[in-house]
Write the structure tokens for this entry.
Amino acid sequence: MRRRWYYFKRMLQADRLFVVQMIGNIIGMIQYAGRWIVLAVVCVAALYLGRGLCAGAWKDFYENYAVRIADDVVRGFLPAWKEDEGTAFYLEIRKNGSRRTKEYEEIFGIENENGVLRAEWIADREQNQGVYGDDRRKNAWGSGNADENVQDRAKTESSEEWGNSGKSGTGENGSSQNEKTTLAGLLAAGTFNTGNSGIILEKLNDYDYLMKKFYNVHPTTTAGRDLMRAENFLAADLSIEKNADIPQILIYHTHSQETYADYPENSEADVIHLGECLAKLLREKGYNVYHDESVYDYRNGKLDRSAAYTYALDGISGLLQKYPSIEVVLDVHRDGVSDGTRLVTEIDGTETAKIMFFNGTSMSPDGPIEYLPNPNLKENLAFSFQMQLLAAGKYPGLTRKIYLKGLRYNEHVRARSALIEVGAQTNTYAEAKAAMVPLADLLDQVLTGE
């Protein structure tokens, strides 16, 4: 009897210990989860407060950082969006080693199965990378000293690497180019006006200042000191001779089905009609513009962007082969943002959609993506930067920061290639159309060198 009572007490003690441990574990889990819940509530509250109170510097932070961060988090962990090409790229490396296929050039990558791959990929990048890119690689243009003299460096750069670099010569497709006045010349002469943009010209050669003031860098890429040099961007001569008799500028739309807030009530509220508006403005300035209205993102009666960039490359490659005189290629889009975000400014008293230049760098955090070569990358970057700097002086508030992302986006087809996001789905077509006037002016200034 005593033995039975002894074992019964031991059993009760063991059960009690088990219950106590279980309660402790549950409390610990609740405490751990509570921290993340509190953090999430704080983040959400900050975003909503920012939307209501943003002004000045806070508005700049909210539009260019907070919304982007939240957007990237959602896109990374909600499979239905299918836009996480960073995960797709990492998965491809893990599955096939160095073999990388063309299908991952698309904006819309494979479905993120469980979020673990993205977490691994980002953790690996953060362990080895700096804020803006890998500074460990050898600097292709020197030591990276921001205080080096611009003119001395420009003299050492070959015209083969950076095009004409402000010198007379022969441009693409054998077209003759006269000597032009580059932005670098305007800066040196002190005739460039930054208006009230707040840009300090003397600090453009400071890498950290340049990246903070002009760029947003997506985690799928790197933007190191060897590549991101304002003096090189400014020295590049991107001018062409106007000729209304032969096609010079190609405008097309990888995502032709993108529309604005007043669609379908306004049947013209889409990027194709917007592209035609830009084409007309450029024709009025003396350029011959070919507007490709082909549909690359709609297949079998439904929206399909899984291979839109591949289809678009096939389409525009055929056009460039047919019209080799084309020297400028513009892919016109509209962005997608949260419903509470309004990308609008006022230009000459008119409500105008903000625009954003978008560069694919053909680089992962580990360096160049071999299967996506872009021999025109430096010129592409110079093209967007020159327009961005001109906009800062002449149309402050018109442009958002230049967005850098890791793939190619067909910008390799010409040196003067640009992907341009005009407003977002929350803008009206009238606001987007109003942005075409200053955009056409910026393009004309860069392409004439005046």
User: Anything to note?
Assistant: The longest helix spans residues 2-53. DSSP finds twelve helices and 15 strands in the chain. The chain has three domains: 1-53, 62-128, 183-448. Confidence is low (pLDDT under 50) at residues 70-180.
